[in-house]
Specification:
Helix content: 55-70%
InterPro entries: Mito/Outer_Membr_Metalloprot, Peptidase_M48
Bound molecules: zinc ion
Pfam families: Peptidase_M48 (PF01435)
Family: Belongs to the peptidase M48 family.
Number of domains: 1
GO biological process, one term: proteolysis involved in protein catabolic process
Distance between the termini: 56 Å
Order of helices and strands: HEEHEHEEEHHHHHHHHH
GO cellular component, one term: membrane
Largest sheet: 4 strands, mixed
Strand content: 5-15%
Structural class: alpha+beta
Amino acid sequence: MKRIVLILTLFLAVSACKVNPFTGQKTLNFYPNSQIFPMAFAQYDQFLGENKVVEGTSEAHMITRVGQRISSAAERWLAANGYPGYLNDYKWEYNLVKDETVNAWCMPGGKIVFYTGILPICQGETGVAVVMGHEVAHALADHGAQRMSAGTLQQIGAVAGNIAIQDPEKRNMFNQAYGVGSQLGVMLPFSRSHETEADRIGLQIMAIAGYDPYEAAELWKRMKAQSGGQAPPEFMSTHPSNDTRINNLTAWAPEAAAEAAKFGVTSFK
Ligand SMILES: [Zn+2]
């Protein structure tokens, strides 16, 4: 069994380098979409089945509306930059769950969840677009898969290809890599470089989607204010808000606005 895992690991390592279209850099990723997406879709459905999905409210409609605009912007950006069809195997879905946790995430293949607990910090559609752009950027750049790839090699063979992950510990590892959270373990933080990358990509996507990129820094200021005091909620423990992030977003806003202008977007809602 150990030898099979080793061979599988070596095979995966050879095919593990993938160029990130947003940065042009090669990244370590053991998981092709064809392997990771079925797992993600199954975990997503399981999550929705175990949580209270909000339907038919103005807030639920807002999550869908922002999600459609963000995903469409990502597709337009990729097509314009030489990656038409890059998201063809994505199956976008946007759900709001009733849960006071401050959290939001996007699983591989475009499976998004917002928790009602993050909405007061978003303060409306533009704030939702900031968070959604950022989370979608993590998915587009395969940060979760890289996070798993950087994990214990032994476990990779055990999880890869296992569509319905029955073992709670393995499922927990998968979910942690995508920020889904669970009572079983401590959340894995994204690395600072992944956070910075997601901030920059997310900012451009939200601007192309027609949302004011100058509002992104304001959202993270509110996150920072919220995280003061007690133990930080899950989203803040994986997304530590700091002055560097806020300064970066402020500095990059004109660049994002200029990018949006290339797509004919010159005013923001
Ligand atoms: Zn992040």
